[in-house]
Design goal:
It is a single chain. This protein is an alpha/beta fold and about 325 residues long. It has one domain: TIM Barrel (Alpha-Beta Barrel), CATH 3.20.20. The protein is built from 12 helices and 13 strands. The strands form 3 sheets. It has an 8-stranded parallel barrel. Strands 8-9 form a two-stranded antiparallel ribbon. The longest helix has 18 residues. The protein starts with 5 loop residues before the first strand and ends with a helix.
Length: about 325
C-alpha cells in the first residue's frame, strides 16, 4: 500500500447469515466511493461465510466466487480491496465465547486459520498487491477467561501465518492489527514491517467513551452515560483534545517514523453522539492521521458509523448521487 489508502469498511460478509448470498457487488456504493476520490475498501469477513459447515478443506465456492466478483468490481474502479478475517476460527473480538476453540492456544484452530488464508492465497496468486491485501485477524485482544491470549501467543501465530502465506506468494501485501482491540502498536513485530513490508493496522476509536457512547454491544458499557463533549476537560482532569490524540498515537508514530507501514483499518463515531461534537473530533483525528501520512478506512459506509444516514443527532443530510449523505463529514474525509 505505497500510496495513501483512504476509504471504507464494507460489510457484505461481516456475518455468516448471508443466505441467499449476494448476487452482485453494490456498484452504486463503489461508484460513489471511487468518484469521491477514495481508493480503499476493507472487507471484514466472518470465516463461516466461506466455511459454513466447518470443513476448511472445502470452502463454499459460491462465497469465493462472490468475493472474486467484488474484487473485480473494485479493480475496475481503481479501488484496493483488503480482505480481513473479522471472525477467525477460534477468535473474534465480538462474542469470543461462541468460538469453542482458542486461535492463540489451540493447534487445530491455527491449522484451520492458516488453511483458509492459504485458500485465498492460491486463489488470488496472480492478483497484484496493488489491488489486494490480506488483513490476517481483526483486533486481537487478551480476552479472559474464555480466550486467553498473551502478546507472545499473538506474535507466534502471526509470524507462523505470515511465513506460510509469503512462502506461497512472496509478493502478497499482508496487514496485522494492533493488540488490545487494534489500539496498541506492535513493536515486537516491527521487523515484519521493515523487512517484509507488512502493514501495521491501528484503530481510531479514541477516546472510547466518546466513539462508543451508549453502544449496546460494549461489555460493561454505561447506557445512561451523559452526552460526551469534545474537546473538553473530563471530571478526572483528563483533557480530550488534539494533544490527547497525538499522545495516544505516539507509539504508532514511532513505528511509522522508523519505516514501518501504518494504516488505520477502522475508525468512526457511533450515532448516539451529537454530530457537531463528532465532527470536531473527526477534524482533530484526521489531522493526526494526515500529519503522519497514514491512510484509513471508516467504519462504515452506510450505517451508524458511516457517512450515509448514520443517524447522529443534529445531522443535516444532502441527497448526493443517490444517497443521503452527511456532506460536512464527507468534506472532512475527502482525500
Amino acid at each position: 500500500m505505497a500510496a495513501v489508502k483512504t476509504g471504507f469498511n464494507m460489510l457484505w460478509c461481516y456475518s455468516r447469515w448471508k443466505d441467499p448470498l449476494p448476487r452482485e457487488a453494490d456498484e452504486r456504493e463503489l461508484d460513489f466511493i471511487a468518484e469521491e476520490g477514495f481508493n480503499f475498501i476493507r472487507v471484514p469477513a466472518d470465516y463461516r461465510f466461506f466455511v459454513p459447515d466447518g470443513d476448511f478443506t472445502r470452502p463454499r465456492e459460491e462465497a469465493l466466487a462472490f468475493a472474486d466478483r467484488y474484487l473485480a468490481a473494485c479493480r475496475e474502479r481503481g479501488l484496493h480491496m483488503c480482505l480481513n478475517l473479522h471472525r477467525a476460527p477460534g477468535y473474534c473480538v465480538n462474542r469470543p465465547e461462541t468460538e469453542g476453540r482458542n486461535l492463540w492456544r489451540d493447534a487445530d484452530a491455527q491449522r484451520d486459520f492458516i488453511s483458509l488464508w492459504l485458500t485465498f492465497t492460491r486463489r488470488y496468486q496472480g492478483v497484484p498487491s496493488s489491488a489486494l491485501s490480506f488483513d490476517l485477524v481483526n483486533e486481537p485482544d487478551e480476552i479472559l477467561p474464555t480466550h486467553p491470549c498473551s502478546r507472545a501467543d499473538h506474535e507466534k501465530v502471526i509470524r507462523k501465518t505470515v511465513s506460510a502465506i509469503l512462502a506461497q506468494d512472496p509478493d502478497r501485501q499482508l496487514v496485522i492489527d494492533g493488540f488490545h482491540g487494534g489500539h496498541e502498536a506492535l513493536p515486537e513485530l516491527k521487523d515484519l514491517g521493515l523487512e517484509r513490508g507488512v502493514v501495521h493496522s491501528g484503530r481510531g476509536y479514541t477516546p472510547f467513551p466518546l466513539t462508543h457512547h451508549r453502544a449496546e454491544w460494549v461489555r460493561g458499557g454505561d447506557m445512561n452515560a451523559p452526552m460526551p463533549e469534545y474537546p473538553c476537560v473530563r471530571p478526572d482532569g483528563q483533557k480530550w483534545d488534539i494533544g490527547f490524540l497525538r499522545r495516544f498515537y505516539a507509539p504508532w508514530k514511532e513505528l511509522s517514523d522508523a519505516g514501518v507501514p501504518v494504516h488505520i483499518g477502522e475508525f468512526g463515531c457511533y450515532n448516539k453522539v451529537e454530530n457537531e461534537t463528532a465532527l470536531r473530533w473527526f477534524t482533530d483525528l484526521l489531522t493526526v492521521f494526515r500529519e503522519n501520512g497514514w491512510g484509513w478506512s471508516l467504519w462504515n459506509f452506510r450505517g451508524p458509523f458511516g457517512i450515509v444516514e448514520h443517524g447522529r443527532p443534529g445531522t443535516v443530510y444532502e441527497d448526493h448521487k443517490g444517497f443521503r449523505v452527511d456532506r460536512r463529514l464527507l468534506e472532512l474525509l475527502r482525500p
